[in-house]
């Protein structure tokens, strides 16, 4: 049986590049995605003194700098919020000066959630234009180490958690992060696999706490060889296309981290037959196979408790709701208003243009499923996940959609159109 193999996971790739830049020697990374967001992280690290050498086997050798760039430089994060927030943590930790900026969309997204805890550690970070927004200036530390930090976050955010952990790792400073629910834990898994003094402490409720202990003062990150698992978020779009078209889909070599598989769990709860199997682990990350047997599915009930593991897939679940039986309710998704676009508003506008009954609230949507023919224009709003979600819905032969900017999917998944076509022509049994 043929199957689709996916580009490397974007979230993991950002973190692997940054960890490799802190290692004691050259590292080898395989299956890095050719995405604009990951390219932004790589370019910024290269400007700061990290060297990259492509190898004959298509892997990438990462050579950490002997010393970080000591003169302030301008770093473009493009449209990548992960780049901006994780680099802020890294550069605070190493004490290197820089100005971080991004495109118009990224400039509209909040930074305080990262800047505040890093300033509390002693990071010298200032806003150059608007409060809570890029561009920001990071000044070199003139003397002394960063302060021990015990930070209690108000929202579950893997970017905040990773930024603080990277600052602690790079400066050999003890840090602790508490979050109300467990967010993506890719960095923690990699650090644990590499022997870092990382402690995940149990809590009495659903909250999560992670700590780099005081032993980090003597810890040296070893060089490593890492094949990036396939992107589960990318896989979700192909699985959804299989549901829409009634075609089975199998993806291999995909990351199956439990903090990222909420989409699969929700599909099962709506009656979809979908199997997943972990076949190996890479630097702590579970990797395996997902197989879909398409069939009818019912409406979704999606609340705040689901968001840490499905936030990126909400646009996809919203378009699937169009063909689900019943009324889908999405709540607790206010964070989507702070992404590459206001995703809740974008979804509501586009669904109404198609003739779908939809109600928009401050933190969610209510969508009435229908089996009627639909047609209408669709705006991507420059957002890759909006473009990809409606491209999936367009696979339904009774729906006619014109996405105004399907090419913006290249930001995260350059091969998306080709892989989607494979499903449409039945090349993936």
In short:
The chain has 429 residues and is of the alpha/beta class. It has helices spanning 10-22, 36-47, 81-94, 104-107, 112-120, 158-171, 186-193, 232-245, 262-269, 307-310, 314-320, 343-354, 384-393, 416-424; strands at residues 4-5, 27-30, 51-54, 60-63, 73-76, 98-101, 124-127, 136-139, 149-152, 175-179, 198-201, 208-212, 225-227, 249-255, 273-282, 285-293, 301-302, 327-330, 358-361, 364-368, 374-378, 399-403.
List keywords for this structure.
429 residues; alpha/beta; UDP-n-acetylglucosamine1-carboxyvinyl-transferase, Chain; 2 domains; 4-stranded mixed sheet; 22 strands; globular
Beta fraction = 15-25%
Show unreliable segments: none
The CATH top-level class label of the largest domain: Alpha Beta
Q: Find the CATH superfamily of the largest domain.
A: Enolpyruvate transferase domain
Gyration radius, in Å:
21 Å
Distance between the termini: 7 Å
Explain what the structure shows.
By secondary structure, the chain is an alpha/beta fold. The chain has two domains: 4-216, UDP-n-acetylglucosamine1-carboxyvinyl-transferase, Chain; 232-424, UDP-n-acetylglucosamine1-carboxyvinyl-transferase, Chain, CATH 3.65.10. The chain is 32% helix and 24% strand. It has 14 helices and 22 strands. The chain has helices at residues 10-22, 36-47, 81-94, 104-107, 112-120, 158-171, 186-193, 232-245, 262-269, 307-310, 314-320, 343-354, 384-393, 416-424; strands at residues 4-5, 27-30, 51-54, 60-63, 73-76, 98-101, 124-127, 136-139, 149-152, 175-179, 198-201, 208-212, 225-227, 249-255, 273-282, 285-293, 301-302, 327-330, 358-361, 364-368, 374-378, 399-403. The strands form six sheets. It has a four-stranded mixed sheet. The protein has a four-stranded mixed sheet with strand order 3-4-2-13, with helices on one face. Strands 5-6-8-7 form a four-stranded mixed sheet. It is globular and about 65 Å long. The model has no long low-confidence stretch (mean pLDDT 94).
